[in-house]
Design goal:
The chain has five helices and 16 strands. With 291 residues, it is an alpha+beta fold. The chain has a single domain, classed as Clavaminate synthase-like (Double-stranded beta-helix, 4-Layer Sandwich), CATH 3.60.130. A hairpin with a 6-residue loop joins strand 10 and strand 11. The radius of gyration is 18 Å and the shape is globular. The mean pLDDT is 94. It binds succinic acid.
């Protein structure tokens, strides 16, 4: 894609998705339109060298749409639209927020369309975020499997926050306030396995190993082999990119057609990012459902 505005420079991060963007100047309407266009094209964008106060991050998020707050996660007392994603240097051998492939809060009736993550403090090395392109993952499937998946729904639930909990052996970072054992998080919500992006019209796989429980109308055991195949297929290296953080960077990704994974390889170093989300629509199926 050639840059739609001469004040922004766009460099693709990988063959499949992601773009590094340098801005020359403030985010006025022209630059914002170019950023939106780049997001639709690259699915993940990495803006370099910003100096955003928390209220500026919130204001930028609002330009994409209505802000949505993350369920079961503590937000900042001073800025209730922001989650501080933190792991402190003295927290070793603990799990971190987002340390498995997922699309943000896919168990909501209207999952967030986009998330913004702004780096305040990052390790000297490690702590990268990986992304996978669920449009290309879908496109690479056989026509036969596509036809099956187009007509299927999957059940999603807020499993890490529910009564089943996370495996007892995994201690979780104390620096991010996560509510556990909430019965309402066990509620299953049906979403199409293949959703259509309202902006681009492209089809994307919409399942992930954290929140997808099973296919609708099937048991967990019946669903597992095909879901496991899709999870492994979707994150093949060819469909991914790797975002390396510098303080002052802002990542924006489209949750409707990507998965992401926070790499937890920086024990002994502090990492702090501010995170906001934009409200999405109810996922649109590839084939209309007769409910
Ligand atoms: C997330 O899943 O939103 C966290 C990503 C990160 O910390 O890199």
């Amino acid at each position: 894609m050639t840059s739609p505005d001469s004040r922004i420079t766009i460099r693709p991060m990988a063959g499949s998705l992601g773009a590094d963007i340098d801005l020359a100047g403030p985010v006025d309407d022209g630059i914002f339109a170019a950023i939106r266009q780049a997001l639709d094209h690259y699915l993940v964008i990495h803006l370099h060298g910003l100096d955003l106060a928390p209220e500026e991050l919130v204001a930028l998020t609002r330009r994409f749409g209505t802000i949505s707050r993350a369920p079961y996660i503590k937000h900042m007392d001073t800025h209730p639209d922001i989650v501080a994603v933190k792991k402190a240097a003295d927290e070793r051998k603990v799990s971190t927020f987002g340390n498995a492939w997922h699309s943000d809060f896919s168990f909501l009736d209207q999952p967030p369309m986009a998330s913004l993550l702004y780096a305040r403090q990052v390790p000297s090395h490690g702590g990268d975020t990986l992304f996978a392109n669920m449009v290309e993952a879908y496109d690479a499937l056989s026509d036969g499997l596509k036809a099956v998946l187009d007509g299927l729904d999957a059940m999603h639930a807020g499993r890490p926050y529910g009564t089943g909990g996370v495996p007892g052996t995994i201690a979780v970072s104390r620096s991010i306030g996560i509510e556990r054992n909430r019965p309402e998080a066990d509620r299953e919500v049906a979403h199409p396995v293949v959703r259509v992006h309202p902006g681009t019209g492209r089809k994307a796989l919409f399942v992930n190993p954290i929140y997808t429980i099973r296919f609708a109308g099937m048991t967990v055991e019946e669903s597992r082999p095909l879901l496991d195949f899709l999870y492994a297929h979707a994150v093949r290296p060819e469909f991914t990119c790797r975002l390396r953080w510098t303080a002052g960077d802002l990542a924006i990704w489209d949750n409707r057609c990507t998965l992401h994974y926070a790499v937890n390889d920086y024990d002994g170093q502090d990492r702090l990012l501010y995170r906001t989300m934009v409200q999405g629509e109810r996922p649109v199926p590839a084939i209309p459902r007769r409910h």
